[in-house]
Amino acid sequence: MTEAQTKTEITFEDFKAEVLNDYRIARVSRECSLLGRKEVLTGKAKFGIFGDGKEVPQLAMAKAFQNGDFRSGYYRDQTFMMAIGQLNIQQFFAGLYGHTDLGHDPMSAGRQMGGHFATHSLDENGNWNNLTQQKNSSADISPTAGQMPRLLGLAQASKIYRNVRGLEDFTKFSNQGNEVAWGTIGNASTSEGLFFETINAAGVLQVPMVMSVWDDEYGISVHARYQTTKENISEILKGFQRDADNNGYEIMTVKGWDYPALVETYQKASAIAREEHVPVLIHVKELTQPQGHSTSGSHERYKNADRLAWEAEFDCLAQMRNWLLDNNLATTEELEAIDNEAKKEVLEGKKAAWTAFVSPIKAEQNELVALLNAIAETSANKVFIEKYAADLAAIKEPIRKDILTTARKVLRMIVKESGQSQLATWITNYTHKIQPKFSSHLFSQSDKTVLGATAVAPTYDEAAEEVDARLVLRDNFDAIFNKYPESLIFGEDSGNIGDVNQGLEGMQEKYGELRVADAGIREATILGQGIGMAMRGLRPIAEIQYLDYLLYAIQIMSDDLATLQYRTHGRQKAPLIIRTRGHRLEGVWHSGSPMGMIINAIRGIHVLVPRNMTKAAGFYNTLLETDEPALVVECLNGYRLKEKMPTNLGEFKTPIGVVETIKEGNDITIVSYGSTLRIVEQASKELLEIGIDVEIIDAQSLLPFDVNHDCVKSIAKTNRLLVVDEDVPGGASAYLLQQIIDEQNGYRYLDSQPQTLASKAHRPAYGTDGDYFSKPSAEDIFEKVYAIMNEAKPEQYPSLY
């Protein structure tokens, strides 16, 4: 695929060649859409969502897009990706078929449906490429407007690289902050709150962002009058227009079928954003959608005849064709030749993609058929096995499910026969080979994985005094910011006052407003800032004031950050650290422990629950030496407790995935985390007074949990288990129990029923009594342990009730 290009000084012949090349790219893209729809309707592909009708504005955008720039876009941007040389015909169809080979589908190796595009920021070992020497696309996601928060961070990175000292050596990530972040979105999706939150934040931050709204008047079947006030997004955003006295946006409108006006508009937008670091919104109007929203239905059902006729006339390719003819840039014959050649190229590319997709599966099919026929010769179930083999061989376009299902069904028929071992080995090897195609890279597989980090204990002077724990955090952050010039932190009240608990006291004054920054009350885009900046080589720490407020951002964390390495097959990463605080809070909206919801929504992000600030500081130090995202939940009621000040600030590291035994005992193992541990410790002292010796284990991290299986070693000694936390019943305590019983096979050592002690199903009422009657208290823990021991030794521990 030839990239779209714009030269500053060109001859008429060069200009003609360039625009005809643009037309050729657009025609190829259109043919991909048309043929792609047929592939879905014939069953070769499962679902199709295409970029037809948006080709010409995407050509114009591609002309303004430079090396180092980033796209955060919409799942219809195939023409743009072709025009910047990052998508060819065969790759387009490989994505449509879900080819699990990254060499064929470099966008996601079959992990996302077609239309979701990405470039490779990392090499095969997880190391950064030089992002300034390539055109970059952050990996798309399907959730509507979900690309917007990340776009903000991609743009903010340029502002950081341009204005923060100490980043002069980060030349593979930025050329003095001259990169633009380009966003695209469908008009209907501007109804989402994430769009407005991002637009507002970008206007406040004044970052180099160009936001394109592709407007075809519909959101699936729903007309713009039900989507947008005044049916016009640029009209209602006029208040964001900058003027001589106020910062804001440059807002432009342009017709989506007007090729020369589009080129001019995008060149102007690029210059403003790139040079002035001002956000630009381009409302691209009067676009069409020739095949409707997707392969799930026909747009003839909801568009009337007049609209359909208008769309046929003002199809951007039809209008570009007319413009070429009217300006004597091409003859009808020349354009027909381009059209015909595009059809031929796309058909050939489609065939090549299908052959590449199905050939290895057919080879696997033939291998199993041969094996089954061989096994059948000596089996008592020969007739049935041969039938399975024949049925499998008859499938003209097999999928791997067909192959493995057949093998596993036959295995049941030959138990205790000579062929059992051979077939079982084949199934095991096949699964081992194929499963990673669908499951790898949920977490980093590079040498910077968190599991490879080496623990470093904090060191202390002999005469070290105890200080408020917040000072341990503060001074450790000071060491971090001094050690890592690429590190920065931002959030509500993080800057001027040094966060609500003073863990960043004085840091803004020392390191400046860009590195230690206040942010508006907008949690989703705080996360987005972090994701985008982390994708461009910075090490951001995004602060969410309280854990409950994380719910505003959970969709971004779950759908974007947690899946990033997975859905790019390890070719993009965003090692964002999310800092928040929770546990033992008071009141319905500040109860602080929805951990079960979090850990089950964000697999792909590590969840760390330090019991004190030294442990928390150690987690930050560990994470900054790794390349994975993590959530750190500090204990809100721990900032004023006393801890010793380490001497090796910025260097000591808390291991991730490793539990810590904080009290040894012989009668029962209690596993807990965070602030609840202090209540467990209190209860254990009272239990010891009556002869019950509790072993206490601090989980420290929930994702991952206890990779060394130390909990089961404790249970082997105590033979009893209680998991305590302050989440709702069935939340994180149930998860921990499952990990210990199922994953670690802890059931083998239990003499009593393993139990959990969690909060009530409701959130706490306001006030201290609300907390006492809602979450586990020391008395609750005492009585729960006592009851377990009563069952084991009723005479020694008679029933309390």
UniProtKB/TrEMBL annotation:
Domain Transketolase-like pyrimidine-binding intervals: 467-641
Keywords: Oxidoreductase, Thiamine pyrophosphate
CDD domains reported in the protein's UniProt record: TPP_E1_PDC_ADC_BCADC (cd02000)
Cofactor: thiamine diphosphate
EC annotation from Swiss-Prot or TrEMBL: 1.2.4.4
Pfam families cross-referenced by the UniProt entry: E1_dh (PF00676), Transket_pyr (PF02779), Transketolase_C (PF02780)
UniProt keyword Transcription present: no
TM spans (from-to): none
Classification via InterPro entries: DH_E1, THDP-binding, Transketo_C/PFOR_II, Transketolase-like_Pyr-bd, Transketolase_C
UniProt function note: E1 component of the 2-oxoglutarate dehydrogenase (OGDH) complex which catalyzes the decarboxylation of 2-oxoglutarate, the first step in the conversion of 2-oxoglutarate to succinyl-CoA and CO(2).
Protein name: 3-methyl-2-oxobutanoate dehydrogenase (2-methylpropanoyl-transferring)
Organism: Flavobacterium cheonhonense
